[in-house]
Each structure stands twice: as C-alpha cells, then as structure tokens.
Amino acid sequence: MSDAQTLAELFALDTLLDPEEIAIRDTVRKFASERIRPHIAEWFEAGALPVRDLARELGGLGLLGMHLEGYGCAGTSATSYGLACLEVEAVDSGIRSLVSVQGSLAMFAIHHYGSEEQKQQWLPGMAAGTTIGCFGLTEPDFGSNPGGMRTHAKRDGDDWVLNGTKMWITNGSVADVAVVWARTEDGIRGFVVPTDSPGFSAPEITAKMSLRASVTSELVLEDVRLPAEAMLPEAKGLSGPLGCLNEARFGIVFGALGAARDCLETAIEYATQRTVFDKSLAAYQITQVKIADMALELGKGHLLAYHLGRRKDAGTLRPEQVSTGKLNNVREAIAIARECRTILGANGITLEYPVIRHANNLESVLTYEGTSEVHQLTIGRALTGEAAFR
Ligand code: TGC
Ligand code: FAD
C-alpha cells in the first residue's frame, strides 16, 4: 500500500470523486511521475525548463484550458481540473504554474472576455500547447494593489499604443502572446499582445531561489502599437483581471496539496528507512505525532478543496471562498514541507529529495495569486463588511 493511499484511505477521499475524476487524476499522476519527475531536480538546479516541449505534452493530454468549453479545450469539470493541478504540483509547483498561467489566466481571459475572432485566433493553439501565453498584471510598484497600475494604453486613431512595465510574469520570455492589463481613459482594460509586436520585450528574471523550474520575466512595453481589435471587449475595470485570478487561485487550492503530499510521502518513507540511535525514525512517538498532524492538515485541505470544487461545478463558488481555500491550503502546505524537512535532517536540504524544492517553491505560491495577507483581508472584509486594504 502506498503512502498516498494511506492518506486517501484515512479520509476515504476517493469516495468523494466519481470514476471519471479518478481516471483523469490517475492519468495525470502517471504522466507527471513518468515524464516530469525524473528530470525535475535537474531542471530546478539548472533554472531552466523546456517550456515548449512540456507545453505540447501537457496540451496533448488536454490539461491546458482543461475546464474551458470549445476551441480545442477538454471541457472537464472544475474538480477534475483541480485534481490535475494537484498531481502536476506533486512533482513541482513550477509546472503547475505553467498550466495555471496558460489555462486559468491567459486562456481564461480570452475565453471569458474575448471577441469570437480572438477566441478563434488564439485558443486552439494555446489548448494544444503550440502557442504559449502569459498574463501581465503585476508591476514593479503594484503587486497586491494592481488597481494602482501605471501601464497605460492610449488611442491613436483606431489603434492603441501601450507603454509600461510588468513584473514577475510567468512564461513572459517564452510566450507567443501576452494578455496585458493597462489603464485607459475608460478604466482598466485587457489587451491581447503578440509578443513579436515592435516595442515589446521580456527580459528573464534570474537568480531566483524558488520556482526555478519556471520562467519568470519582466514585460517591457515601449510604444507597442496594436489594432483596435486587440482589446478584450468584455473586460471592463479591475474585475476583469480579478475574475481570472479566481480561476488560477482555484487551481492552487488543489495544487498546493500535491506539493505537501509529496513531502509527506517522502518523509514517511525516509523515516521508515532511517535508523536513529537504535531504531527506526518512524518508530519514535515524536515522528508519529508530526506525521499524524501533517496527515490531518493534508486531509482537511483535500476536503476543503473538493468542497470548493463542487461549489465551482455548481456555479456557486464565491471569491472569498476561493481566498479561504488558497490561504489555508498554501499555508498548511508550506508548514508541512518545512516539518517534513526536519524529518529528513541534513538530507532534507538536498535536491536528492523533493522536500526543500517544494518548500522553496511554496514561498512563491504563498506570495503569488494574492499573498496570504491579501486573502486574510479578503476574508476579513467578507466577515466584517469593512475593507481594510487601505
Ligand atoms: P476592489 O474595489 O475590491 O474591486 C475592484 C472591482 O473588482 C471586483 N472584484 C472581483 N471580481 C472578481 N473576482 C474577485 N476576486 C474580485 N475582487 C474584487 C469588485 O467587485 C470591483 O468590481 P466593480 O465592478 O465594482 O469595479 O479592488 P481593490 O483595488 O480594493 O483590490 C482588492 C484586492 C486587494 C483584493 C485585489 O486587488 C487583489 O486581489 N490583489 C492581489 C493581486 C493578485 O493576486 N495578483 C496576482 C497576479 S497574477 C499571478 O500572481 C500569477 S502567479 C502564477 C500562477 O498562478 O501560477
Ligand atoms: P507587495 O504587494 O509589495 O507586498 C509585500 C508585502 O506587503 C506582502 O507581505 C503583502 O501581503 C503585504 N501587503 C500588501 N498590501 C497589504 C495591505 N493592504 N495590508 C497588509 N499587508 C499588505 N504576476 C502576474 O501578474 N503574472 C504572473 O504570471 C505572475 N507570476 C509570478 C511568478 C512568481 C514566481 C512570483 C513570485 C510572482 C508572480 N507574479 C505574477 C506576481 C505576484 O502576483 C505578486 O508578487 C504578488 O501579487 C504580490 O505582489 P508584490 O510581490 O509586489 O508584493
């Protein structure tokens, strides 16, 4: 019996999924274990990811824009999409980021807010993974507060001219198309920007200690001229990009549990094989208390994720509920990763085991898609009726 089954059985988790969801989960788990896991430590150490090859494989499996309908997308349930994120992130948060940014951010923006022409032009290639997208919201001085953005788009005849800088953009340097949010006379609007547009550049951000198996970039827009049709017609104001964030945050609610599960499985296996003083590390009560407490949080996180998945599939999931899941599951995942690291002792700091890699990755996951503090304030606003962001 594997460790994952032990946890699943403890909470009878599979009884909460239907056969199709289990089949999708198992397919993604197999793919991630066989195709990505053997290389991931090397990619992380090198700080280099074969994004194009991976995107094609992920697209071939139907994981990109997985729960969107039409235009080459798989059209699965949101719960299935969450399970796929979990299995991908069990190998590495960086690969889940690729899936999130492509499907939940760039594709969702076009799918939800785009014109029919924009959807036809971009979505089939993005679903197949032959066209790579990125999502430019954050700026150097405006991360948690994107409403303050300085990037702007001005009308020049029928055209738009964009100027500004975006920061920390996943897949920026490898993208074929960027969804860029900019201030206009009419409020914040979204633009579909081909990355070969004159004036667009995307220098890569290096020397990261987290999400090393993921491309992170700056986007620089200097007089980027776009036709009128480049604007997303249905996104008006900050609710446009925030609507996309709900989608990606939902994937993280599940995804972070994958990283935590991988840490816990690794720690349990290590503890059973490691002898300290005169017996197995797993046979000490302190180790078992750690394992039991981590299993509880991991199981509770799954129950929360599955519940939110059902709410999303029913069309009733609210943004503050997504915040609840993101805050809890990422916070618990990083605590589990750190606790597992203690069980591995010095071995826990090497890339021979996945634990320190997950722990470092989860530092980014804690920050992106709304920091823990932003989600605490979102929950606080929902419960008190008082917005305390400012
Ligand atoms: P606020 O006044 O609250 O809202 C402005 C308008 O937006 C609406 N709204 C939402 N709509 C949909 N979903 C949500 N979650 C929404 N939250 C708010 C709101 O109703 C309002 O609409 P309207 O029609 O009245 O104009 O805005 P605020 O300026 O006070 O900001 C609120 C705050 C702080 C919660 C928001 O700015 C926020 O979420 N900040 C965090 C930014 C963030 O998460 N950035 C992530 C960038 S992308 C990324 O990190 C990708 S990582 C890669 C990966 O995913 O793997
Ligand atoms: P800040 O907003 O400066 O926050 C700094 C600290 O202040 C945090 O602890 C924060 O919680 C706290 N704080 C902020 N506001 C308040 C407040 N009102 N009250 C109390 N405390 C507060 N962005 C994109 O647009 N697209 C991407 O693809 C993308 N990918 C990313 C990939 C990686 C690896 C990383 C690390 C980031 C990525 N981001 C992306 C950016 C990410 O969304 C931002 O980093 C995040 O929103 C936080 O913004 P910031 O880093 O500017 O921190």
TrEMBL record:
Indicate yes or no for the key word Magnesium.
no
The Acyl-CoA oxidase/dehydrogenase middle domain extends over 134-224
Q: Which InterPro entries match?
A: Acyl-CoA_Oxase/DH_mid-dom, Acyl-CoA_Oxase/DH_mid-dom_sf, AcylCo_DH-like_C, AcylCo_DH/oxidase_C, AcylCoA_DH/ox_N, AcylCoA_DH/ox_N_sf, AcylCoA_DH/oxidase_NM_dom_sf, Glutaryl-CoA_DH_mitochondrial
> Which GO terms are recorded in the biological process aspect for this UniProt protein?
fatty acid beta-oxidation using acyl-CoA dehydrogenase; fatty-acyl-CoA biosynthetic process
Under Pfam families, the record lists: Acyl-CoA_dh_1, Acyl-CoA_dh_M, Acyl-CoA_dh_N
* UniProt keywords, alphabetically: FAD, Flavoprotein, Oxidoreductase, Transit peptide
GO MF term list: fatty-acyl-CoA binding; flavin adenine dinucleotide binding; glutaryl-CoA dehydrogenase activity
Acyl-CoA dehydrogenase/oxidase C-terminal domain: residues covered = 236-383
SUPFAM superfamilies (UniProt xref): Acyl-CoA dehydrogenase C-terminal domain-like, Acyl-CoA dehydrogenase NM domain-like
The family note in this entry says:
Belongs to the acyl-CoA dehydrogenase family.
Query: What PANTHER family does this protein's entry cite?
Result: GLUTARYL-COA DEHYDROGENASE, MITOCHONDRIAL
Give the protein's recorded name.
Glutaryl-CoA dehydrogenase
Which species does this protein come from?
Rhodococcus triatomae
